[in-house]
Batch of 4 targets.
Target 1
Amino acid sequence: MELSTPRKKVVVFDYGFGNIRSAERALAHVGADVEVTRDYDTAMNAEGLLVPGVGAFASCMKGLREARGDWVVGRRLAGGRPVMGICVGMQILFGRGIEHDVETEGLDEWPGTVGPLKADIVPHMGWNTVEAPQDSRLFAGLDADERYYFVHSYAVHQWELEVSNPAMRAPQVTWATHGEPFVAAVENGPLWATQFHPEKSGDAGAQLLSNWIDTL
């Protein structure tokens, strides 16, 4: 008798900010065993942790800290356990965010600042292409002209992390442009993130989430 492959356990961390039900449905659609929770032990023991985020940087950070999400993310990454951030869930992984001249400390997993987009039309809302590295695992199997769904007014405009050890795999940074270039996605060891919403990006977003699950 042929045995089925066990589904990967993924937790969507529920700290009060983010399209958690959309993320839950999208992950289940591509074959993950999904649970939405803020339970510390469940989030720590899952094979993958997804951190969503919608709204203001400061509010997301406050909610995340109150739910002990900062501890969960830090402990998981210290043990090499996969974490993926989406939208503001990506932004809070950087050192700081500046909104309306107010600076808020982020998780500082990556150095850098989240600041306002400088474009004729803000927010950046709708479909856009990205420029991914050729050896990207996140975008594997996806055409260069695929479009992804963005909704944001702030972004990271400069990638600051430098890897001096040649034995380490350099972070894979994907860019997009809306008025100016900004970081659209990052793959850095167990920590991956997207500024766009894969759960709202149709078949391309489903392929991207499937690529992440395949690495768990």
Target 2
Amino acid sequence: MEFRHLGRSGLQVSAISYGNWITHGSQVEEDAAGACVRAALDAGITTFDTADVYAGTRAEAVLGRALKGQRREGLEIFTKVYWPAVPSGPDDTVTPGHNDRGLSRKHIMASIDGSLRRLQTDYVDLYQAHRFDYGTPLEETMSAFADVVHSGKAHYIGVSEWRAEELRAAHALARELRIPLVSNQPQYSMLWRVIETEVVPASEELGISQIVWSPIAQGVLTGKYLPGQPPPAGSRATDEKSGANFISRFMSDEVLTAVQKLKPLADEAGLTMAQLAVAWVLQNPNVASAIVGATRPEQVHDNVKAAGVKLEEGLLKQIDEALGGLVERDPAKTESPRNIRA
């Protein structure tokens, strides 16, 4: 496993991190989730990413149980706050309240305690703002994060899907408050490159790394979705609980046909298509870690082989030629609350 520094901090994370966005507590049973976490540990992954909102708080709880008994100092555990995170399911009757969302001091303070309880840990290594909150003063949010850090409940602060100007404003406040803002967690893949024009240059200037999600474009870059054919039964594209709304943007025949052109390139490089996709995002020097998820342990073992792979310039050019104008680069497409609904 390769390890990289997170921003300009001293914290090192595994270049491949394990995330449980749509798997733990939802898509797979707990035994399978535990097997995937063990596979990640066996493969040298030390960095685990989750969020309080995933599976209505169940994902954090499943991860906490799966990591129980591991040496805490040898792990980097990340979680997030923003969306309403109350227990969900057929037997749950809790309805989110008006303060169960966003980055107010009230919500942050309640949320960090809930996350620590579910994760069965005294602290998280990285506490992330899951989105930018346009309804709360940034000063209030950063002051609350400072109190979380100074109380020892989190070691570092990060954000997710923040724009360049938002990162600059938060970084200035973080310096005043003497807290380490070290990361942004955006979507990034061969097909989705909206961070390259503005977010990455700003982050390099500020000393902030990217921890990227969906490096395989929700599975599209594995090549398993074929143009003109229905999605495989049980795949993410057929399951609304598994992010089908996110994958739909990549499911046109034009995109799927272009993706098939990547297969001979992966074969020539001695990689699976999934490994090629993960290795591709790791070529960006501002990317500290690529988050992979799994429903089976063998998926973890396959993806982790992308760590440390160096892709030649000629291959990178061939990838760009294969995908052509289908790549999304518009910074305005950032997954902001301004252009998506909860």
Target 3
Amino acid sequence: MIQIGQKIPSSTLSQLTAEGMTNHNTDELFANKRVVLFAVPGAFTPTCSEAHLPGYVVLADEIKAAGVDMIACVSVNDAFVMQAWGAAQNAEAIAMLGDGDGSFTKALGLDMDTANFGGIRSQRYAMVIENGVVTTLNVEEPKKFEVSNAESILTALK
């Protein structure tokens, strides 16, 4: 698993916006920025839709005021699903990134196999990335939602 002080692995994440589909290289996406990246096991799933993403939507302005250039949500879903979920959650301030094949999640070492529930998914986590390097990493224990929420990250940023 990736650790604090390590560089984010080079990978590709997709994003669908009003301008169309963009395939972001993570080296470029996280370069020269302070980014909050949080991951969910799946778009439209209960905890993700009822608490995790909404918390970042509500606190987006405060997080950005703490010196964050970008807030991004990633899931092992395609960019179309991530865009639709973001629209349904009023997440305009959050970059909704798809890791369709799970390669980014696997490269981080934060993948999990949910078997017939959904296959390979991401563990629930949040991290702060500064110029491509992880400076904060909060990984949830299985079936928990305590350290990757927006409030915890906002506290870590102050």
Target 4
Amino acid sequence: MPESRIAPDVTARRRAMAAFAEATADELAGALDAILGETAATDLRRPEAGLVMVRGRIGGDGPAFNLGEASVARASVTVGGLVGHAYRLGRDTGAARLAAIADALWQDPARRPAVEAALVAPVEARLAADRDDASRRAAATRVDFFTMVRGDVD
């Protein structure tokens, strides 16, 4: 579905969930300690780790092929009647549970600004800085090739 036809709230939740998936366990725990308070989170399904098949395509439009397996942790929780879900690469079920809690809190309009400020914005800033750093390191290894022409070319 084209991005322009997706509801703005869905797009915003995708952005937030991407940040929750990329956040470190320490970033999640630190932000949620301040936001969650005394509210309890209940597991809908025990957090678990498993494998998913990663599929790829050559050139973006070639035939799909199985690339390999990747470890994934998932969790589903409820916080104050709101259901949060999370899938994260790796086997850290604790971080997946924290990400699911963050998703549930983000869905609460009263807590969304706090989650955005304490977790989503800092994670996005860290990821942007990491991309810039990687780009600078790659640019430092760039080699410009050129050809010198000897004599007149007519």
